[in-house]
């Protein structure tokens, strides 16, 4: 398993956090996701043979936030 950390901007409440969690968790190969509103950060544990960090960024952006 690999761990990716992404900085997310645009999250303002727990609804945003849950929305981000949901889109990340829906990606094939994602084992676990933790999103911190305080740190504006997502920590994602994933299977590198099935998912790529670029997909996380795209999913977050599609959900309406900025990811880096
Ligand atoms: Cu919100």
Topology overview:
Blueprint (H helix, E strand, L loop, with lengths): L1 E8 L4 H12 L4 E7 L4 E6 L6 H10 L3 E2 L1
Antiparallel strand pairs: 1-3, 1-4, 2-3
The protein binds copper (II) ion.
Helix % is 25-40%
The run of helices and strands is EHEEHE
Task: Provide the gyration radius in Å.
Answer: 11 Å
SS-based structural class?
alpha+beta
**Distance, first to last CA:** 21 Å
Reported for the largest beta sheet, the result is:
4 strands, antiparallel
Molecules bound to protein = copper (II) ion
Estimate the mean pLDDT confidence.
97
Low-confidence stretches: none
> Strand content of the residues, in percent?
25-35%
Biggest sheet strand line-up: 2-3-1-4
- Strand runs, count: 4
Silhouette: globular
> Helical region count?
2
Briefly summarize what is shown.
The chain is an alpha+beta fold and 68 residues long.
What does this structure look like?
With 68 residues, the chain is α+β, with helices and mostly antiparallel strands. It has helices at residues 14-25, 53-62; strands at 2-9, 30-36, 41-46, 66-67. A 4-stranded antiparallel sheet has the order 2-3-1-4. It is globular and about 30 Å long. 19% of the residues are buried. The structure holds copper (II) ion. Copper (II) ion binds next to helix 1.
């Amino acid at each position: 398993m690999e761990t990716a950390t992404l900085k997310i901007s645009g999250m303002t409440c727990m609804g945003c956090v849950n929305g981000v969690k949901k889109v990340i968790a829906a990606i094939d190969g994602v084992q676990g996701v933790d999103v911190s509103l305080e740190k504006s950060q997502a920590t994602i544990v994933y299977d590198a043979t099935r998912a790529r960090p670029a997909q996380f960024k795209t999913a977050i952006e599609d959900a309406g936030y900025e990811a880096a």
